[in-house]
Amino acid sequence: MNKLEQIVAFNKSFVENKDYEPYLTDRYPDKRMVIVTCMDTRLTELLPKALNLKNGDAKIIKNAGGIVTQPFGNIMRSILVAVYELGAEEVIVIGHYECGMTGLNPEIVIDHMKENGIKDDTIDTLMHSGINLKRWLTGFDSVQESVENSVNIIRNHPLLPPGTAVHGFIIDPKTGGLDLRTDGYKHLKAKQS
Description:
This is carbonic anhydrase. Pfam families: Pro_CA. Helices cover 40% and strands 16% of the residues. It has 8 helices and 5 strands, in the order H-E-H-E-H-E-H-H-H-H-E-E-H. The longest helix has 14 residues, at 3-16.
């Protein structure tokens, strides 16, 4: 059986046996938070356990690096939808140590694309049409700075409701230990002073 067939067979059994019942919830986050984090496989189960989250507690948005790179991109849109339409009241950005985006070299990524069949013409066409692939594929030098940059983009977004706490953490992908980088409550209190 290939991977797709395995998924379909397992899913059929999962539904028939009603194994979904322990996960039933609605679309509104019970803990009224939205989390932006990395897609790293080590965090799939570890992060919710380390934060004491169960199914339905939080909206979790994942991408490479757990970063917000632009104020009007998909990640920020998802945060705003979670806040305005789904009842989230706080935002948490969680980066992690040993992130694959740390020091990611766009030249190497582009070389890997070419090795996997993407033609030079395609890359050249994109580059000449205003898409800066090298910038788009660049990682970051410091996970600490990455978390703080993402928090600042969110905090300073013109459409984020005033008074929304935005926190930043770095998680250890082995132990689940959290290092607080920025406390959204303290930031709001200092802003009010």
